[in-house]
Amino acid sequence: MEEEKKDKQEDKLIKKTDYRDNDNNALEEIQKTNKEILKLTKKINKFVFWQKVFSVIKLLIIIIPLLLAWRFLDDFMSDPGAMLNNPWFSTYVNNLLEAIGKNIDPTQINIDTNSIPAEYQHLLNR
């Protein structure tokens, strides 16, 4: 009987050491898994960060032209002649008029130049 008890105790000791080995293996596997999860989480966080950055950039690409248009179109609508006094815009208009003027025969145009406001008369002499 004593031998059977000893055998049982030895079996219990062996099982305990097996469990400890299994526990250590399980802990190592858990650590490996946690490291992989950490790597993936860092990648996901980087992706989310860049998504936020580009969404802000896209929003600015939409909003800035709208604000500029609102600002400058408001001035243009209140006084269209003011835009013609702008040196950048007047250069564009002059180049456009020259390009159009090359393709138009002035003898076929019937415009009463007296009906044009005086502030725009200087444009006709160019």
Question: How would you describe this structure to a colleague?
Answer:
The N and C termini lie far apart (126 Å). By secondary structure, the protein is an all-alpha fold. The chain has four helices and no strands. Helix content is 82%, strand content 0%.
Strand content: under 5%
The helix/strand order is HHHH
Query: Gap between N and C termini, in Å?
Result: 126 Å
Spans of at least 5 consecutive residues whose pLDDT stays below 50 are: none
Give the % helix.
Answer: over 70%
User: How many beta-strand segments?
Assistant: 0
Q: Tell me which oligomeric state these chains represent.
A: single chain
Q: What is the residue-averaged pLDDT?
A: 78
> What is the approximate shape?
rod-shaped
Count of separate DSSP helical elements = 4
Described by strand count, sense and barrel closure, the largest sheet is: none
* Secondary-structure class: mainly alpha
Rg, nearest Å: 42 Å
Quick description:
By secondary structure, this protein is mainly alpha-helical. It is 82% helix and 0% strand.
Produce the secondary structure layout.
Elements (H helix, E strand, L loop, with lengths): L1 H77 L1 H5 L2 H17 L17 H4 L2
Key features?
mainly alpha
